[in-house]
Amino acid sequence: MNISGLTLGRIVDPNGEIHSTEKIERRVNQGAAVLNDRGVCRGDCVVIAHSGTAQFFEDLLSTWLIGAYAVCLNEALSSFELRNIVDFVEPRILLHKSNQKISVEGTELCCLPDCRKSLVPGNTKIAFDDQLDDKALVLFTSGTTGIPKGVVH
Question: For the residues of 37-72, what is the DSSP string, one character each?
């Protein structure tokens, strides 16, 4: 996959599983199709509440492929901290790992690897015309005031 002139090679996740370029590209396209089917559009906020795996990068690239922007959160956040940020950013959807126990009332939850299973074969090509000024990523500080503080990239 070629993203903004950068060639994506293989990723070896913490479990030692190797993810080839083809496998990543297929999963990213499928993830974007799932997000599209769930109504996520260009400019929407997608919270990714996990990190450190190939699935995180696939979720991030799927989010960007449809023109949405990502708020990436540490999965070790307390339920209060998670709820506080979700209330603040009002995401269209929250992505998590299948073994994560997350409950955020009023927010759609999705584990893309589980949701990809319901896709119609061949229905995974998403066309998106990104713009230079589109939001891509919002990073938050842990802050001590209880009020989320983020930087938009």
Answer: HTT--TT-EEEE---SSHHHHHHHHHHHHTT-EEEE
